């Protein structure tokens, strides 16, 4: 099935769908810092570099599915949480505009769990109704998932809207299969000794990294960062990989931070040299990007941003496979019904 991708970023969601057998024929990404990374890792996909607001629906190829993660900052509980009142939050409407015009068999929209806080309830209900009523209409499924349940070594809760066009006559069911938890030791232990600190001003080491992108941001830690433990042990899953390198989790080689008082922790005295941020490559591994997926940037912060904003590849793959399977079963069922009717009509005639 052919799909198009909006707000594609580096393409974690796209790659997961490709691994599940979909063909991503066209993608849209407005951030110029990401273009090189997307194009070099998705050479078979046409990349449109305009803002979605400037893209006429007729410019979007005919497709079986539309996927994407409209910018999440507006909905983040940790930020201003302005939601649909923010211009970035309103990009949901352009996503729906394209959906209504193209009428694919399905769509997927992903966003942060902050959408579920009470102040957004009215806007969220409105978005759900717009999705349900787009064009011919869609049967909407909506759920918060934790990537840790889908072969991703990370606690990462995100909400997913998945709609199935009503003429397909079924409601999508989210995957219920369970998988063993993947630990940090399994995911990144082989990378421990080879990471490089970023260069001055957090510039990239470039080709001096023997393992591509295996470099970590340098610089101090804010009081907000030091207010709680930022270390997960080797036998645990990572904290959420965020889009800012300043907030990258600490590598599990370090002991958990020492509690001083409420909202105050410190690195264990005498062990300070063990406390470094996870590298860009380690964050990519935790987001389940393959080793041959190379991120291109000049500032290390841009690497963290691309990775932190992505949908984990394995989570995307499991969802994509379930969508493909359920649509296939529905279409097979409809074909059987049609063939049965034709057989009856031929018998009567």
From TrEMBL:
<dbReference type="InterPro" id="IPR031303">
    <property type="entry name" value="C5_meth_CS"/>
</dbReference>
<comment type="similarity">
    <text>Belongs to the class I-like SAM-binding methyltransferase superfamily. C5-methyltransferase family.</text>
</comment>
<dbReference type="InterPro" id="IPR029063">
    <property type="entry name" value="SAM-dependent_MTases_sf"/>
</dbReference>
<dbReference type="GO" id="GO:0009307">
    <property type="term" value="P:DNA restriction-modification system"/>
</dbReference>
<dbReference type="InterPro" id="IPR001525">
    <property type="entry name" value="C5_MeTfrase"/>
</dbReference>
<feature type="active site">
    <location>
        <position position="72"/>
    </location>
</feature>
<protein>
    <recommendedName>
        <fullName>Cytosine-specific methyltransferase</fullName>
        <ecNumber>2.1.1.37</ecNumber>
    </recommendedName>
</protein>
<keyword id="KW-0949">S-adenosyl-L-methionine</keyword>
<keyword id="KW-0489">Methyltransferase</keyword>
<dbReference type="GO" id="GO:0003677">
    <property type="term" value="F:DNA binding"/>
</dbReference>
<dbReference type="Pfam" id="PF00145">
    <property type="entry name" value="DNA_methylase"/>
</dbReference>
<dbReference type="GO" id="GO:0003886">
    <property type="term" value="F:DNA (cytosine-5-)-methyltransferase activity"/>
</dbReference>
<dbReference type="GO" id="GO:0044027">
    <property type="term" value="P:negative regulation of gene expression via chromosomal CpG island methylation"/>
</dbReference>
<keyword id="KW-0680">Restriction system</keyword>
<dbReference type="InterPro" id="IPR018117">
    <property type="entry name" value="C5_DNA_meth_AS"/>
</dbReference>
<dbReference type="InterPro" id="IPR050390">
    <property type="entry name" value="C5-Methyltransferase"/>
</dbReference>
<keyword id="KW-0808">Transferase</keyword>
<dbReference type="GO" id="GO:0032259">
    <property type="term" value="P:methylation"/>
</dbReference>
